[in-house]
Amino acid sequence: MYAPFELDIPNDLAGALAALANGDGEAVLPLAGGTNLIVDIRAGRERPDRMVGLDGVDELKGMEFGPERIAIGGRTTVSDLLRSPEIAREAPSLVEAARLFGGLMVRNTGTVAGNIASGSPAADLVPPLLTLDAELTLQSAASTRTLALDDYYLGYKQDARRPDELITRISWPRLPRDSVNTFYKLARRKGDAITVTGVAVTLAAAGGTCTTARIALASVAPVVRRVKEAEALLEGRALTPALIDEAAEAAAEACTPIDDIRASADYRRHTVRALTRRLVAGAWDRLA
Amino acid sequence: MTYTDIDPGALANVQFRQVGKPLTRTDAPGKVTGRTPYAGDYVMPNMLHMRVARADVASARLVRLDVSRARALKGVACVLTAADMPDRTSATDIPGQTGQKRLDTDQPVLVKDRVRYFGEPLALIAAETRDIADHAAALVEFELEPIPGVYDPLEALKPGAPQVYGEDNIVATRRIRKGDVEAGFARADLIVENTYKTPFQEHAFLEPEVGLAWVDENDVVNIRVSTQVIEHFRPIADAIGVPHNKVRVRGALVGGGFGGKEDMTVEVYLALLAKHTGRPVRLEYSREDSFVGHGKRHPFILTYRTGVTKEGKITALDVTMIADAGAYVFLSPYVILYALVAAPGPYRVDNINVFAQAVATNNMYTSAFRGFGALQACAAYEQQMDEIADALGIDRLELRRRNFLKTGEPMSTGFVPPSAIWTEQCAEKAWAGLGEPTPAQGPIRTGRGLACYQQSYGRLTFLHDTSEAWVGVEMDGTVVVRSGVTDIGAGQISAIGQIAVEVLGVTLDNVVIYNSDSAVTPLAGTTTATRALYMTGNAAKQAAEGLRARLVERAAQEFGVAPDEIDMGFNEVFVIDRPEKTMPLVDLVRICAAEGIHRSELAIFRAPFGDFLDPETGQGQAHPDYAYGAHAVEVSVDVETGEVEVLKSVAAHDVGQCINPAAVEGQIQGGAQNGQGYALSEEMLYEEGRLVTPSFSEYLMPTAMDMPKVECIILESRSGVGPFGAKGIGEPAMTAVAPAIANAVADAIGVRVFEMPITPERVVRALHGKGAAEQGRDPA
Phi first, then psi: what are they for B99, rounded to 5°? Predict the structure, then answer.
């Protein structure tokens, strides 16, 4: 049963931002793919007075491949990611996450900005984007600002987006030449499943030393998060099995998983350790 | 891929023209083009929409139920509670379409004073629209005072446990006592004892429960409903208090049953509201309703104690099985009977004790599900066979070979199955079908598992099962079949058509089948228990043969030969080996019509009628016959994360005689998927009786990405008691899949996970239990 709501269907970005700006005390939500939101409304977990449908907002689509940065529109769908050879080259972890994301219908409808904004601790696209140092463009009728994805989440289902803002753009720097960017989704089945433990890793190396390390984890904390404690252990060093073990242990200690229907906290911590070790070691092997 | 293996010593005694060929099913074109209406597609003018309001705790006293606000809502036509029909009860234990020998297990249609499971119905609502019905359901006010419940069958057996059923929560107990078990153990060189646990399972049919009911001009309550059993018209009539001939159940093609539409689901609710309002009423369950709206597969705890000689010969077997029956009886007494009979599996065990008990709890009630207790037994006995083989150091297939029950030997109940027992051939073919082993890679280990099974087809003989079919030939030579049999998606009616046209020598495109109407089509019994092909196939064959005999007799007269010189095929009637003596079937039919020769036949097929098994020893004939086969799998296991992937899945089943190989393969593919989910990923988690995995985002069946190619090897012993020597494949296709996977996982990691589903976390725990020191890590 759906509680009634108003639906605005603007046909450009200005119209969408204007519709979001006229909140006037109502609960107004942007509606992109709706693959989470509609389910939540049907279950009574979300009760918007009004929604702003973004289907007609073409400015939110598209990808740009600049010399330094890659940028994609907020309404890029998960399937769009899979159709782009440039994304496959420039963000392999994101493509891997997209490949394992939901089912085909959800991939065709669900959007990158929606996956970020819904704030799920299990959001599959977020760990790859965190390890790519992604930046978000948040736009409202009155202002435009950019924010590191790393600073976006404030707590469980709490984020830095104001109700009148949209995530219009997601961008990240091109990967350095000698780098590996990977993602592993551990779930209770291969297709169409919610992640039990997600780990994304970016390693870059120069002259036998790890120059950049990014490790991000999903489903093991109130928000998808980087584990800077582990990253710091690796950056500036030549990686050894012992050092990788240490970083894996740091990741396991940094995460704060809970027991739920999919797995226990202990199991999640165990798999954070195992997968961090596996992904970092695998990446370092490929860089060597 | 599929290939068929026919024993040269079991050649058919007739030349098949239709049977055994992968013909396009009669139901396929309508389904593929979307023209086939399912029960949910039927609507009527002036129709009301229903909703069931349910309890939101599992064990409570109903202190107050107030539907006045719901009734007052504009657009609400009717709200019924137990107070409106204080004496209305509904049968839960409905084992037979003949209705005899039912246990006294009725429950109130709606909660009167006591809630025993989460989701038990409190009120029925009919309104002008679905939204209004939903809104009214939200306005039903109730106060439930919690009563301590019990959610574990072993807890429920303890003295002082909360009472759910009777004095002691024991729903039913069955026993087998055969030979001298103590002497058998004394003779054993080794005794292996293990306890295995199997989980709840949801049927998860594509089509949730749905129906439409209306009262016609003769005061007959008509119900168009998605069901496996149209014979429920009798208990529906009893429940609403009308004569049996005043309820008519009209089925439709069913979007999956698997046992979940064997019990009544929405029928009584529909009938009550159609009767109370005088208007057509429609009720469609959402997926969430469906999860709480029908019984689940029984979880079992099975303890196997097996005595064996050094050579691997089983000398004694002692089995204890405890099944969680949930809050109401339903088919639990029969499910544990199947488990009891199946306990030793397809092995010769002369000294055997089996104790099987169904225990009531405040969990969701459990009832029929593909495999029906025999599958849970297989999950245990096939894991136990690997444990024994490993303990003795004997090859796992070889250990089985040394113990297989052979054709003509008595099974656990002393009964000698009348058909061939081809377990060994099936096991060898399935095992060989795995091909070259996939090598391990780093933390990804690989392993292989085999499981064999014995699964009945046909219902319990004490139910005195019968099935009817009518076959007629029209004036233009086309064929009509009428039979009440329901088609739950496996091609039941098409197979029955294929049998009739085989006998009458016409092609499948010349037959139309009318089925699934309790008032108009001859009653054929349930589509359950792997019986539709066996029972109704035999009935259709008998009817067609009766008709053929009359046609052949008249043709013999026409050609001046003896009837046994006549054959029918390709829509022609002819003298064997004399091509000039032939006439189109249509000409013969016209002659028969002109002379008043009866051009149709109604036949009844009777399964062997038996008595109940001896209550102390369990000896006797439980079923008409049994099917045998094997499933083999190869898996990979990630020993760090515990993830299991099924790499290869090979099934080999003796189906007796294949009627339609494409349909058989469909059953095998589906069984492989159903069993894989049961073994690995499907999990119904209950917290104090409340399901916390109530949708397909939590309840995880294998997707296309999870399934390997399933290889189907079809064997034909032509020895079954079905038509043309057919056995059955509906349930057998699933039975051995889960233990084969469990055995493959154990083979891969060297330690067994004794409880299904074998989740990644359980794998990791088992590995750490085995060698935490060796792994040098904290146990997860």
Answer: 80, -5
Show me where the domains of chain A are located. 6-53, 58-173, 180-287
Fold of the domain spanning A6-53: 3.30.43
CA dist., res. A262 & res. A264, Å (int): 7
How far away is chain A from the Cα of B30, in angstroms, using its nearest Cα? 25
Residue with tokens 């339903």: B330
Where are chain B's structural domains?
A: 1-7+413-460+623-780, 466-606
pLDDT tens digits along B163-175: 999 999 999 999 9
Q: Which of B722, B707, B626, B725 is nearest to B671 (CA)?
A: B707
Backbone angles phi, psi at B514, to 5 degrees: -105, 125
Residue A65, SS3?
A: strand
Residue of B nearest to A198 (CA): B641
Backbone angles phi, psi at B84, to 5 degrees: -80, -15
Chain A residues near residue B134 by CB distance under 8 angstroms: 1
Place B443 in a pLDDT band, splitting at 50, 70 and 90. Answer: very high
Secondary structure of residue B505 in the 3-state scheme: coil
Residues A138, A170 contacting (CB under 8 angstroms): no
Each residue's pLDDT tens digit, A55-96: 999 999 999 999 999 999 999 999 999 999 999 999 999 999
Tens digit of pLDDT for each residue in B379-398?
999 999 999 999 999 999 99
* Pairwise CB contact (< 8 Å): B134 & A1: yes
Fold classified for A180-287: Enolase-like; domain 1 (3.30.390)
On whether the CB atoms of residues B370 and B334 are closer than 8 A, the answer is no
Distance CA B410, CA B752 (A): 32
Which range has the worst mean pLDDT, A43-52, A274-283, B742-751? A43-52
Q: What stretch of H or E contains B501?
A: helix B492-504
Answer whether residue B7 shows pLDDT above 80: no
For residue A4, what is the nearest residue in chain B, using CA coordinates? B131
The sheet carrying A135-139 orders its strands as: A63-65, A69-73, A166-173, A135-139, A144-148
The answer, yes or no, to whether residue B56 has pLDDT greater than 60, is yes
Peptide bond into B199 cis (omega under 30): no
As given in the structure block, the two tokens for residue B767 are 């590995």
Residue of B nearest to A2 (CA): B131
**By the CB < 8 Å criterion, does B707 face chain A?**
no
CB atoms within 10 A of CB B26: 21
Residue B32 vs residues A73, A197, B36, B667: alpha-carbon distances, Å = 39, 40, 8, 18
- Does residue B681 sit at the A interface (CB-CB below 8 Å)? yes
User: Distance of CA B207 to CAs B33, B50, B254, Å?
Assistant: 18, 17, 7
User: Given an 8 Å threshold on Cβ–Cβ distance, is A261 in contact with B700?
Assistant: no
CATH number of A58-173: 3.30.465.10
Q: How many CB atoms lie within 10 A of CB B36?
A: 14
Dihedrals φ, ψ of A195, to 5°?
-65, 135
Q: Give the predicted TM-score (pTM) of the model.
A: 0.96
Buried b (16+ CB within 10 A) or exposed e, B344-356: bbbbbbbbbbbbb
CATH number for the domain running over B1-7+413-460+623-780:
3.30.365.10
pLDDT of residue B774: 44
The three-state secondary structure class of B235 is helix
What is the CB neighbour count within 10 angstroms for residue A241? 10
User: Do residues B362 and B691 touch, judged by C-beta distance below 8 A?
Assistant: no
Residue positions counted in chain B? 780
Instruction: Find the mean pLDDT for residues B768-775.
Output: 59
Put the strands of the sheet holding B114-115 in their side by side order: B114-115, B60-66, B141-146
Domain B466-606: assigned CATH number: 3.30.365.10
What is the tens place of the pLDDT at every residue in B336-369? Answer: 999 999 999 999 999 999 999 999 999 999 999 9
